[in-house]
Amino acid sequence: MKILVLNCGSSSIKYQLFNMEDRHVIAKGGIEKLGMKGSFLKHKTEDGRTIVFEGEILDHKAGVEYVLGILTSEKYGCLKSFDEIDAVGHRVVHGGEYFSSSEFVTDEVIDALVKCTDLAPLHNPPNIKGINAMEELIPGIPQVGVFDTAFHQTMDAKAYMYGIPYVLYKKYGIRRYGFHGTSHRYVSARACEILGRDYNSTRIISCHLGNGASIAAIKNGKSVDTSMGFTPLEGLIMGTRSGDLDVGAATFIMEKEDIGMKTLNTLLNKHSGMLGLTGISSDMREIREASQNGNEKALEAIDIYCYKIKKYIGSYIAAMGGVDAILFTGGIGEFATYVRENVCSDLEFLGVELDVDKNASVYGDEGIVSKEGSRVKVMIVPTDEELMIALDTEKIVKEKVKA
Questions:
Q1: CA distances from 256 to 240, 260, 276, 392 (A)
Q2: Which domain holds residue 342?
Q3: Which residue is catalytic, options 118, 148, 198, 355?
Q4: 180: annotated binding-site residue?
Q5: Does any domain span residue 142?
Q6: CATH of the domain at 98
Q7: Does the pTM of the predicted model rise above 0.90?
Q8: Is 283 annotated as a binding-site member?
Q9: Phi/psi at 15 (5° precision)
Q10: 22 catalytic, yes or no?
Protein backbone atom coordinates (compact mmCIF):
# COMPACT_ATOMS: atom_id res chain seq x y z
CA MET A 1 0.00 0.00 0.00
CA LYS A 2 1.30 3.46 -0.93
CA ILE A 3 0.13 6.31 1.27
CA LEU A 4 0.61 10.03 0.70
CA VAL A 5 0.83 12.11 3.88
CA LEU A 6 -0.09 15.80 3.55
CA ASN A 7 0.45 18.61 6.05
CA CYS A 8 -1.23 21.72 4.67
CA GLY A 9 -0.46 25.01 6.37
CA SER A 10 -1.65 28.51 5.55
CA SER A 11 1.26 29.14 3.17
CA SER A 12 2.90 25.73 2.88
CA ILE A 13 2.28 22.10 1.98
CA LYS A 14 4.57 19.35 3.27
CA TYR A 15 4.30 15.83 1.90
CA GLN A 16 5.76 12.33 2.20
CA LEU A 17 4.93 9.26 0.14
CA PHE A 18 5.30 5.96 2.03
CA ASN A 19 5.53 2.38 0.83
CA MET A 20 3.82 0.68 3.76
CA GLU A 21 5.22 -2.76 2.96
CA ASP A 22 8.50 -1.76 4.58
CA ARG A 23 7.46 1.71 5.86
CA HIS A 24 10.11 3.54 3.87
CA VAL A 25 9.74 7.02 2.36
CA ILE A 26 9.66 6.92 -1.44
CA ALA A 27 9.69 10.70 -1.86
CA LYS A 28 9.11 13.82 0.20
CA GLY A 29 9.17 17.56 -0.06
CA GLY A 30 7.25 20.73 0.43
CA ILE A 31 5.86 23.91 -1.05
CA GLU A 32 6.73 27.23 0.56
CA LYS A 33 5.27 30.72 0.09
CA LEU A 34 2.02 29.31 -1.23
CA GLY A 35 -0.10 32.10 -2.73
CA MET A 36 2.79 34.55 -2.50
CA LYS A 37 5.47 35.89 -4.80
CA GLY A 38 8.46 33.56 -5.01
CA SER A 39 6.62 30.33 -4.23
CA PHE A 40 8.56 27.13 -4.84
CA LEU A 41 8.44 23.36 -4.44
CA LYS A 42 11.42 21.43 -3.04
CA HIS A 43 11.31 17.72 -3.83
CA LYS A 44 13.60 14.96 -2.52
CA THR A 45 13.81 11.66 -4.39
CA GLU A 46 14.43 8.22 -2.94
CA ASP A 47 17.99 8.23 -4.28
CA GLY A 48 18.83 11.45 -2.43
CA ARG A 49 18.45 14.06 -5.15
CA THR A 50 16.91 17.44 -4.26
CA ILE A 51 15.09 19.37 -6.97
CA VAL A 52 13.64 22.87 -6.62
CA PHE A 53 10.84 24.12 -8.85
CA GLU A 54 10.00 27.81 -8.81
CA GLY A 55 6.71 29.12 -10.08
CA GLU A 56 3.43 30.76 -9.24
CA ILE A 57 1.45 28.44 -6.93
CA LEU A 58 -1.72 30.34 -6.14
CA ASP A 59 -3.70 28.12 -3.77
CA HIS A 60 -3.89 24.72 -2.06
CA LYS A 61 -5.54 23.00 -4.99
CA ALA A 62 -2.77 24.19 -7.31
CA GLY A 63 -0.23 23.17 -4.68
CA VAL A 64 -1.59 19.64 -4.32
CA GLU A 65 -1.72 19.42 -8.13
CA TYR A 66 1.98 20.37 -8.24
CA VAL A 67 2.77 17.64 -5.67
CA LEU A 68 0.90 14.99 -7.65
CA GLY A 69 2.56 16.22 -10.82
CA ILE A 70 6.09 15.82 -9.48
CA LEU A 71 5.31 12.41 -7.97
CA THR A 72 4.16 11.15 -11.40
CA SER A 73 6.65 13.03 -13.57
CA GLU A 74 8.73 10.95 -15.93
CA LYS A 75 12.03 12.55 -14.91
CA TYR A 76 11.72 12.97 -11.12
CA GLY A 77 8.65 10.97 -10.15
CA CYS A 78 8.21 7.58 -8.51
CA LEU A 79 4.67 6.75 -9.64
CA LYS A 80 3.32 5.88 -13.07
CA SER A 81 -0.10 7.32 -12.28
CA PHE A 82 -2.32 8.64 -9.48
CA ASP A 83 -3.86 5.16 -9.25
CA GLU A 84 -0.78 3.95 -7.37
CA ILE A 85 -1.71 6.15 -4.40
CA ASP A 86 -3.96 3.98 -2.23
CA ALA A 87 -4.89 6.57 0.39
CA VAL A 88 -4.05 10.01 1.76
CA GLY A 89 -3.43 10.84 5.41
CA HIS A 90 -3.82 14.46 6.53
CA ARG A 91 -2.37 16.16 9.55
CA VAL A 92 -5.25 18.15 11.05
CA VAL A 93 -4.44 20.47 13.93
CA HIS A 94 -7.74 20.70 15.81
CA GLY A 95 -10.46 18.12 16.26
CA GLY A 96 -12.03 19.83 19.27
CA GLU A 97 -14.10 17.48 21.40
CA TYR A 98 -15.38 15.71 18.29
CA PHE A 99 -12.46 13.34 17.72
CA SER A 100 -10.54 11.16 20.16
CA SER A 101 -8.85 9.18 17.39
CA SER A 102 -8.00 9.44 13.71
CA GLU A 103 -11.01 9.28 11.40
CA PHE A 104 -11.91 8.26 7.86
CA VAL A 105 -12.90 11.50 6.13
CA THR A 106 -16.58 11.84 5.37
CA ASP A 107 -18.90 14.81 4.86
CA GLU A 108 -19.75 14.61 8.57
CA VAL A 109 -16.07 14.79 9.51
CA ILE A 110 -15.60 17.84 7.28
CA ASP A 111 -18.61 19.50 8.93
CA ALA A 112 -17.09 18.91 12.37
CA LEU A 113 -13.75 20.35 11.24
CA VAL A 114 -15.50 23.48 10.00
CA LYS A 115 -17.10 23.83 13.44
CA CYS A 116 -13.60 23.69 14.97
CA THR A 117 -12.35 26.56 12.80
CA ASP A 118 -12.83 29.13 15.59
CA LEU A 119 -10.49 27.04 17.75
CA ALA A 120 -7.73 26.94 15.11
CA PRO A 121 -8.45 29.71 12.58
CA LEU A 122 -4.94 29.63 11.08
CA HIS A 123 -4.66 25.86 10.79
CA ASN A 124 -7.96 24.06 10.23
CA PRO A 125 -9.00 26.00 7.07
CA PRO A 126 -5.84 25.00 5.12
CA ASN A 127 -6.17 21.44 6.47
CA ILE A 128 -9.70 21.32 5.05
CA LYS A 129 -8.53 22.85 1.76
CA GLY A 130 -5.98 20.07 1.40
CA ILE A 131 -8.66 17.42 1.87
CA ASN A 132 -11.00 19.10 -0.61
CA ALA A 133 -8.21 19.57 -3.17
CA MET A 134 -7.32 15.89 -3.06
CA GLU A 135 -10.96 14.89 -3.51
CA GLU A 136 -11.26 17.17 -6.54
CA LEU A 137 -8.07 15.90 -8.15
CA ILE A 138 -8.51 12.20 -7.36
CA PRO A 139 -12.25 11.73 -6.74
CA GLY A 140 -13.12 8.95 -4.33
CA ILE A 141 -9.61 8.39 -2.97
CA PRO A 142 -9.73 7.23 0.68
CA GLN A 143 -8.65 10.00 3.05
CA VAL A 144 -7.98 9.96 6.79
CA GLY A 145 -7.70 12.87 9.23
CA VAL A 146 -5.13 12.55 12.03
CA PHE A 147 -5.68 15.20 14.71
CA ASP A 148 -3.03 16.86 16.89
CA THR A 149 -5.58 17.17 19.69
CA ALA A 150 -7.11 13.68 19.56
CA PHE A 151 -4.56 11.87 21.75
CA HIS A 152 -5.25 14.26 24.63
CA GLN A 153 -9.02 13.69 24.60
CA THR A 154 -8.47 11.00 27.25
CA MET A 155 -7.69 13.72 29.84
CA ASP A 156 -10.14 13.95 32.75
CA ALA A 157 -12.03 17.18 33.45
CA LYS A 158 -9.71 17.85 36.40
CA ALA A 159 -6.87 18.19 33.88
CA TYR A 160 -8.61 20.06 31.07
CA MET A 161 -11.01 22.48 32.77
CA TYR A 162 -10.11 26.10 33.50
CA GLY A 163 -11.40 28.00 36.52
CA ILE A 164 -13.77 30.14 34.46
CA PRO A 165 -17.59 30.23 34.44
CA TYR A 166 -18.80 26.83 33.23
CA VAL A 167 -21.16 28.50 30.79
CA LEU A 168 -18.15 29.78 28.80
CA TYR A 169 -16.82 26.26 28.44
CA LYS A 170 -20.20 25.02 27.19
CA LYS A 171 -20.76 28.02 24.93
CA TYR A 172 -17.32 28.35 23.30
CA GLY A 173 -15.48 25.13 24.10
CA ILE A 174 -12.88 26.98 26.20
CA ARG A 175 -10.83 24.22 27.83
CA ARG A 176 -7.38 22.70 27.60
CA TYR A 177 -6.98 20.62 24.41
CA GLY A 178 -3.24 20.06 24.10
CA PHE A 179 -1.26 19.63 20.89
CA HIS A 180 1.65 17.57 19.49
CA GLY A 181 -0.57 14.55 20.22
CA THR A 182 0.61 12.54 17.21
CA SER A 183 4.24 13.04 18.25
CA HIS A 184 3.61 12.14 21.89
CA ARG A 185 1.68 9.03 20.85
CA TYR A 186 4.43 7.87 18.49
CA VAL A 187 7.42 8.37 20.79
CA SER A 188 5.72 6.92 23.87
CA ALA A 189 4.73 3.76 21.99
CA ARG A 190 8.17 3.50 20.39
CA ALA A 191 9.85 3.87 23.80
CA CYS A 192 7.94 0.88 25.11
CA GLU A 193 9.04 -1.12 22.07
CA ILE A 194 12.68 -0.23 22.83
CA LEU A 195 12.29 -1.08 26.52
CA GLY A 196 10.27 -4.23 25.89
CA ARG A 197 7.50 -2.96 28.15
CA ASP A 198 3.73 -3.16 27.89
CA TYR A 199 2.52 0.25 26.66
CA ASN A 200 -0.73 -0.19 28.57
CA SER A 201 0.98 -0.53 31.95
CA THR A 202 3.75 2.07 31.71
CA ARG A 203 3.97 5.65 33.02
CA ILE A 204 5.75 7.97 30.59
CA ILE A 205 6.60 11.66 30.50
CA SER A 206 7.19 12.77 26.91
CA CYS A 207 9.09 16.03 26.32
CA HIS A 208 8.62 17.33 22.76
CA LEU A 209 11.13 20.17 22.64
CA GLY A 210 11.45 22.19 19.46
CA ASN A 211 10.67 25.77 18.53
CA GLY A 212 7.24 24.80 19.80
CA ALA A 213 7.37 22.64 22.92
CA SER A 214 5.05 20.58 25.08
CA ILE A 215 5.16 17.83 27.69
CA ALA A 216 2.64 15.02 28.08
CA ALA A 217 1.94 12.67 30.97
CA ILE A 218 1.02 9.29 29.49
CA LYS A 219 -0.29 6.62 31.85
CA ASN A 220 -1.12 3.14 30.60
CA GLY A 221 -1.20 4.28 26.98
CA LYS A 222 -3.41 7.33 27.57
CA SER A 223 -2.65 11.03 27.87
CA VAL A 224 -3.68 12.19 31.34
CA ASP A 225 -2.23 15.71 31.14
CA THR A 226 -0.26 17.96 28.81
CA SER A 227 1.32 21.39 29.02
CA MET A 228 -0.29 23.15 26.03
CA GLY A 229 -3.85 24.27 26.59
CA PHE A 230 -6.66 26.02 24.72
CA THR A 231 -3.96 27.20 22.33
CA PRO A 232 -0.30 26.18 21.84
CA LEU A 233 0.70 29.32 23.79
CA GLU A 234 0.23 27.75 27.22
CA GLY A 235 2.88 25.69 28.96
CA LEU A 236 6.64 25.72 28.45
CA ILE A 237 8.72 28.69 27.35
CA MET A 238 9.29 28.17 23.61
CA GLY A 239 11.23 29.77 20.79
CA THR A 240 8.97 32.80 20.45
CA ARG A 241 6.01 31.89 22.71
CA SER A 242 5.82 33.05 26.31
CA GLY A 243 4.38 29.86 27.76
CA ASP A 244 2.50 30.11 31.07
CA LEU A 245 1.67 33.71 31.91
CA ASP A 246 -0.56 35.38 34.49
CA VAL A 247 -3.53 36.81 32.58
CA GLY A 248 -3.25 39.82 34.84
CA ALA A 249 0.25 40.44 33.48
CA ALA A 250 -1.15 40.35 29.94
CA THR A 251 -3.85 42.93 30.69
CA PHE A 252 -1.26 45.05 32.57
CA ILE A 253 0.96 45.07 29.45
CA MET A 254 -2.02 46.07 27.30
CA GLU A 255 -2.78 48.98 29.57
CA LYS A 256 0.78 50.22 30.03
CA GLU A 257 1.80 49.81 26.37
CA ASP A 258 -1.58 50.99 25.09
CA ILE A 259 -1.96 48.01 22.74
CA GLY A 260 -4.94 46.00 21.59
CA MET A 261 -5.64 42.28 21.64
CA LYS A 262 -4.17 41.63 18.19
CA THR A 263 -0.86 43.27 19.10
CA LEU A 264 -0.75 41.42 22.43
CA ASN A 265 -1.34 38.13 20.64
CA THR A 266 1.58 38.88 18.30
CA LEU A 267 3.77 39.91 21.23
CA LEU A 268 3.16 36.70 23.19
CA ASN A 269 3.33 34.34 20.22
CA LYS A 270 6.02 35.89 18.02
CA HIS A 271 8.27 38.10 20.17
CA SER A 272 8.41 36.36 23.54
CA GLY A 273 9.89 33.06 24.73
CA MET A 274 13.63 32.55 24.27
CA LEU A 275 13.76 35.33 21.69
CA GLY A 276 12.21 37.78 24.13
CA LEU A 277 14.33 36.69 27.09
CA THR A 278 17.65 36.84 25.27
CA GLY A 279 17.15 39.42 22.55
CA ILE A 280 19.42 37.16 20.51
CA SER A 281 17.39 34.52 18.69
CA SER A 282 14.63 31.96 18.97
CA ASP A 283 17.10 29.28 17.84
CA MET A 284 18.50 27.37 20.81
CA ARG A 285 21.74 26.67 18.94
CA GLU A 286 22.50 30.37 18.65
CA ILE A 287 21.51 30.95 22.28
CA ARG A 288 23.77 28.10 23.40
CA GLU A 289 26.69 29.56 21.45
CA ALA A 290 26.10 32.95 23.06
CA SER A 291 26.00 31.34 26.52
CA GLN A 292 29.32 29.59 25.88
CA ASN A 293 30.78 32.98 25.01
CA GLY A 294 29.67 34.31 28.37
CA ASN A 295 26.41 36.10 27.45
CA GLU A 296 24.59 36.41 30.79
CA LYS A 297 21.11 36.72 29.28
CA ALA A 298 21.64 33.54 27.28
CA LEU A 299 22.89 31.65 30.33
CA GLU A 300 19.92 32.80 32.39
CA ALA A 301 17.40 32.04 29.63
CA ILE A 302 18.63 28.45 29.30
CA ASP A 303 18.30 27.97 33.06
CA ILE A 304 14.76 29.37 32.98
CA TYR A 305 13.88 27.14 30.00
CA CYS A 306 15.14 23.98 31.72
CA TYR A 307 13.63 24.89 35.09
CA LYS A 308 10.14 25.13 33.57
CA ILE A 309 10.56 21.68 32.00
CA LYS A 310 11.74 20.24 35.33
CA LYS A 311 8.70 21.71 37.14
CA TYR A 312 6.31 20.09 34.67
CA ILE A 313 8.10 16.75 34.98
CA GLY A 314 7.79 16.91 38.77
CA SER A 315 4.10 17.76 38.63
CA TYR A 316 3.40 14.94 36.17
CA ILE A 317 5.24 12.41 38.32
CA ALA A 318 2.91 13.46 41.14
CA ALA A 319 -0.16 13.28 38.88
CA MET A 320 0.65 9.73 37.73
CA GLY A 321 1.91 8.44 41.09
CA GLY A 322 5.38 7.84 39.66
CA VAL A 323 7.11 7.49 36.30
CA ASP A 324 8.87 4.68 34.44
CA ALA A 325 10.45 6.61 31.57
CA ILE A 326 11.17 10.21 30.60
CA LEU A 327 11.50 10.81 26.85
CA PHE A 328 13.13 13.65 24.94
CA THR A 329 12.20 14.33 21.32
CA GLY A 330 12.07 17.22 18.84
CA GLY A 331 15.03 19.24 17.60
CA ILE A 332 16.11 20.43 21.07
CA GLY A 333 15.13 17.24 22.88
CA GLU A 334 17.13 15.07 20.48
CA PHE A 335 20.24 17.21 20.03
CA ALA A 336 20.69 19.53 23.04
CA THR A 337 22.66 17.33 25.45
CA TYR A 338 23.05 20.24 27.90
CA VAL A 339 19.25 20.68 28.13
CA ARG A 340 18.74 17.02 29.01
CA GLU A 341 21.53 17.18 31.59
CA ASN A 342 20.16 20.36 33.16
CA VAL A 343 16.58 19.05 33.29
CA CYS A 344 17.54 15.70 34.84
CA SER A 345 19.95 17.14 37.42
CA ASP A 346 18.83 16.87 41.07
CA LEU A 347 16.06 14.39 40.20
CA GLU A 348 17.99 11.42 41.60
CA PHE A 349 15.68 11.33 44.64
CA LEU A 350 12.87 10.43 42.21
CA GLY A 351 14.86 7.60 40.63
CA VAL A 352 16.15 9.62 37.66
CA GLU A 353 19.87 8.93 37.20
CA LEU A 354 21.31 10.34 33.99
CA ASP A 355 24.50 8.83 32.61
CA VAL A 356 26.45 11.94 31.59
CA ASP A 357 28.72 10.06 29.19
CA LYS A 358 25.86 8.25 27.45
CA ASN A 359 23.90 11.49 27.27
CA ALA A 360 26.81 13.23 25.55
CA SER A 361 27.30 10.38 23.06
CA VAL A 362 23.70 9.98 21.84
CA TYR A 363 23.07 12.81 19.41
CA GLY A 364 19.81 12.72 17.46
CA ASP A 365 19.48 8.93 17.57
CA GLU A 366 17.39 6.52 19.61
CA GLY A 367 19.00 5.65 22.89
CA ILE A 368 18.75 5.13 26.64
CA VAL A 369 20.88 7.74 28.39
CA SER A 370 20.17 6.87 32.02
CA LYS A 371 22.51 4.80 34.19
CA GLU A 372 22.23 1.03 34.05
CA GLY A 373 20.52 0.79 37.43
CA SER A 374 18.34 3.89 37.12
CA ARG A 375 14.80 3.14 38.24
CA VAL A 376 13.48 5.70 35.74
CA LYS A 377 14.73 5.30 32.19
CA VAL A 378 15.77 8.50 30.42
CA MET A 379 15.53 8.14 26.66
CA ILE A 380 15.95 9.95 23.37
CA VAL A 381 13.30 8.93 20.84
CA PRO A 382 13.25 10.87 17.54
CA THR A 383 9.68 11.60 16.54
CA ASP A 384 8.10 10.57 13.24
CA GLU A 385 4.65 12.15 13.03
CA GLU A 386 4.41 11.46 9.28
CA LEU A 387 4.92 7.72 9.80
CA MET A 388 2.32 7.76 12.58
CA ILE A 389 -0.15 9.44 10.21
CA ALA A 390 0.64 6.86 7.52
CA LEU A 391 0.16 3.96 9.97
CA ASP A 392 -3.19 5.32 11.16
CA THR A 393 -4.28 5.84 7.56
CA GLU A 394 -3.31 2.31 6.57
CA LYS A 395 -5.15 0.78 9.54
CA ILE A 396 -8.34 2.80 9.08
CA VAL A 397 -8.53 2.29 5.31
CA LYS A 398 -8.01 -1.47 5.67
CA GLU A 399 -10.75 -1.63 8.32
CA LYS A 400 -13.03 0.35 6.02
CA VAL A 401 -12.42 -2.08 3.16
CA LYS A 402 -13.17 -5.09 5.41
CA ALA A 403 -16.40 -3.48 6.57
A1: 22, 11, 18, 49
A2: 196-385
A3: 148
A4: no
A5: yes
A6: 3.30.420.40
A7: yes
A8: yes
A9: -145, 150
A10: no
